[in-house]
Design goal:
Layout lengths: L4 H17 L9 E5 L5 E4 L15 E4 L4 E3 L8 H10 L5 E5 L2 H9 L11 H4 L5 E2 L7 H11 L4 E4 L3 E6 L2 H24 L7 H15 L2
Parallel strand pairs: 6-7
Antiparallel strand pairs: 1-2, 1-5, 2-3, 3-4, 5-8, 7-8
Helix pairs in contact: 2-5, 3-6
The structure holds zinc ion.
């Protein structure tokens, strides 16, 4: 059975809380969204609501064009990035944006997360690229993020953080966690030596698996 609108709103608020509990965000940062099935509407976390006070009633409805539709609060300032991803990627049902420390450190360095671990690839689909810097809400940021994301499940935002996408909130959250884990391994491996990329055949095989996992 499909979740009700209220259940979906609660899930959006719960995943933002989870992002905080798992150390991906502090203070008011980060945002979470999901499509409302069979509509061109999206539920997104609001701007400026403390994590302990955040509930389903605070979650805002926008259109995939990024326009406000319904809600008691203004949407997150990064909601237009979410909307642009939904427009570009019909396969995406949820978007999670946070500032997890290792992923953000690589984003600050402008360093993509290369495929160095085989288990990472089927879930993310390849190198996590770094989108060019843009001011919050700017066309440069929005277009650059969509382009650097491409068909994959994650992208780093230069000087900012990470964006993870998936068919639903569960999948997008798994990707956000995997990206942070891969960023941490990349960091450790780089400190100790020079990480090697996976052999091309492993990358090719995993890309095929990604196409399958993405739709699961
Ligand atoms: Zn942010």
């Amino acid at each position: 059975m499909e979740p009700s609108l209220d259940e979906l709103k609660q899930a959006v608020a719960d995943y933002k809380r989870k992002l905080h509990a798992r150390g991906h965000i502090v203070a008011l940062a980060g945002n979470v969204s999901t499509r409302i099935p069979d509509t061109n509407h999206v539920l997104v976390t609001p701007s400026q609501v403390p994590i302990d006070a955040l509930g389903a009633a605070d979650v805002v409805t926008i259109s995939v064009d990024g326009d406000f539709v319904d809600g008691n609060r203004p949407p997150s300032s990064e909601a237009r990035v979410h909307a642009a991803i939904y427009r570009a990627r019909p396969d995406v049902g949820a978007v999670i944006h946070g500032h997890s420390p290792y992923a953000t450190a690589l984003a600050v360095l402008g360093r993509p997360i290369e495929p160095i671990m085989d288990e990472f690839l089927p879930y993310v689909g390849g190198t996590v690229e770094v989108a060019p810097f843009g001011m919050s809400g700017s066309a440069e940021l929005i277009e650059g993020t969509v382009e650097a994301l491409g068909p994959r499940a994650a992208v780093l935002l230069r000087h900012h953080g990470q964006v993870a996408v998936g068919k639903n909130l569960d999948k997008a959250f798994q990707v956000a966690e995997l990206v942070e884990w891969a960023a941490r391994v990349t960091w450790l491996a780089t400190v100790a030596g020079r990480p090697e990329r996976l052999p091309p055949e492993a990358i090719e095989t995993s890309s095929g698996v990604y196409a399958y996992v993405k739709d699961m």
